[in-house]
Structure formats: C-alpha cells, structure tokens
Amino acid sequence: MIKKEKSITELNASISRVDEICRSNNLGFTDIRRQVFEIIIKNNKPIKAYEILDEIRNITNKPSHPPTVYRAIDFLIENGFVHKLNSINSFVGCFHPKTHEECYFLICKKCNLYQECCDDSLKDRISKTAVHNKFVISNTTLEIEGHCLDCSQK
Amino acid sequence: MIKKEKSITELNASISRVDEICRSNNLGFTDIRRQVFEIIIKNNKPIKAYEILDEIRNITNKPSHPPTVYRAIDFLIENGFVHKLNSINSFVGCFHPKTHEECYFLICKKCNLYQECCDDSLKDRISKTAVHNKFVISNTTLEIEGHCLDCSQK
DNA sequence: TAATATATGTTATGTTATAACATTGCAAAT
DNA sequence: ATTTGCAATGTTATAACATAACATATATTA
Q1: Where are the domains of chain B?
Q2: pLDDT over threshold 70, residue A4
Q3: Which of A81, B57, B114, B120 has the fewest CB atoms found within 10 Å of its own CB?
Q4: Between chains, do B137 and A119 touch, taking CB under 8 Å as contact?
Q5: pLDDT at B1
Q6: Alpha-carbon distance A20 to A23, whole Å?
C-alpha cells in the first residue's frame, strides 16, 4: 500500500531494468542520468529539481547547474523512467517503465509518499470520456491528493 | 463541443451567478476579484497569471503587482469560480461553480481551447480507485491533453 | 583525422509564485 | 465621534521553478 518503502532489492531491480532498456534501445544511460534516476527513486517521495541538484552537488563536489538536472530529467521522462507530478512540481520514479503510457498517482499530503495507480478501468474510463468528446489524447495528468490510510487514521 | 466560444450572454450569466453566490455567502466580490474573474472567463482559453496582470495594468493604467493577481486567483479558486490547470500553469473559469467539487479538463494543445468534463462515471471511477487504495481524496487534478475534433482533422 | 552527433558545462535570464510589511477603508464597539 | 479590529490591497523584494544560448568535451563513424 502507499506507505511501503522500496527495498534495496527493488531499487536495484529498477535500475537494472532501466539499464537494460537503455542498452537495448541504444539510449545513453550516462553517469548524470543514472545519478539523477537513482536520486529520484531512492528518495521514495516526490523530489524537486533543485533538491536533486543539491544532492548532485553533494555527491560530486563539483559545481552543477540547473540545466544539467533538467536535461537528465527530460531524458528520463521522455523514456518513461520518471514522471512529473504537475500539481507539486516534483518528480517520481516509475517502477514499471514501458509497460504503460499513462501513469496515475495517489499522493499523500501528510507523509508525502505516493503510489502509482494505473488500473485499466481508470484508463478505460478516461479513454471513454475522451472518445465521447471526440478528443484524441496525447497525455494525461491524473494526480489524486489526499491522505493515505496511515495518515488519515492519525 | 470543445471549440465552442462562450457567448456574451453566457459570460454575463456566469458573472451574475458568481455575484449572487458571493452575496449570499457574504464573500466580498471586490473590484479586483471581479476584474480578474472577467478577464479569465472572457479569455476563453487558459490564461496565465502574468497575462492577467498585463491586462489589469492595461485596464487600470496603474502599477499592479503579482500578489494582487495571485490573491484574487486564490479567492476565486477557493470558492470554485476558477480552476488552475497544473499541467500548463494556467487558469480557467468554471461555468458551473458549486455544483461539483472536482473538475476535470480536456485541453487542446493546438487551439488551446479547453472543456470541462466532469461526468459522474469518471468521478465514480476515481473515487473507487481511491477507496481500493484506502485513500481519502482531498483534491484531484485530471487534465487530459491532446487534440480536439477540429484540430485533429486538420 | 576530420566531420558529425550527442552530451555536458556555464552564464545568464525568463517564468511562476510568495513572504513580509505598509496602507487603506470600512464596520462594529466604546 | 473615536477607536479598534479586520479584510483587502499596495508595495518591495525575493524565492522557486525552468530554459535559452553558446562553449566545450566526448564518442562515433566516414
């Protein structure tokens, strides 16, 4: 459920998967891109671009600048490895890249943990709404904010 | 359908409705708030805060500053008279305020026109997803970007 | 090895949004 | 009538988020 943190194993699996996808698609999974991806998925919560920048600076002890981070993020988003949460200007890792186009989210306002919730019934419903309005979808933002079980019990 | 512009009559009706709601709820529908609301709904397309600011400056010929606009927007959003489209940092008027909590949108990337699409089946589906995840919703961002009928035919 | 493409470094700036405090105007309490 | 309190607005400054433009480096391949 939403509060579950990702284990080291899961994180490593996720990194390997992306590595693999990049290799087989001839995408350069460069050091920076890998670092940014790792920072995002290890963070466990949505993370902001400038927070990523701070971490990069800490790790590398070199001057780093916003474009470096934003470029890496762009790459990761383009290839479906991370998603942007528009409602909070933050980024989250995708734990099943390439298995679906759209990704929907539950975001807890209290603990900040999030969960992907990409059920097909939801996708179908959105798709039907679009068809009904003669609308061709290119991308969907669905971000459900509220409180997760743990936080709403407190 | 999505391409339909609002008529003067509809715009006036919308303003009157908000006026009425404010009166009966003891909300100050001040000059600035009214101006910002009118600018937003007359614009017909999602509008950005700084575009609103420019218009205010043109109308009043006085120095105006971002907080003025953002405060008015906050008021209008709090009371359900306008919505923010997080995916494009823009604001749109709501043509049926107080009749539903959540509002979903179709946004055409080509012509920029938008449409509210708040069908109950969609709302139910989202609600079910939340329940299934033991999640209590406080607010939902659903923004479907793509092409409207007219624009996808061209 | 030169030419090309891809990625990154760097500087500067653009865009979006809010904090903090001063001022105004109006309405209720004295 | 005067003070007090409050909601709204004015104003300055800056925070937070994001990209343009150009220089440099690194890798590929002709």
Answers
A1: 8-153
A2: no
A3: B120
A4: no
A5: 55
A6: 5
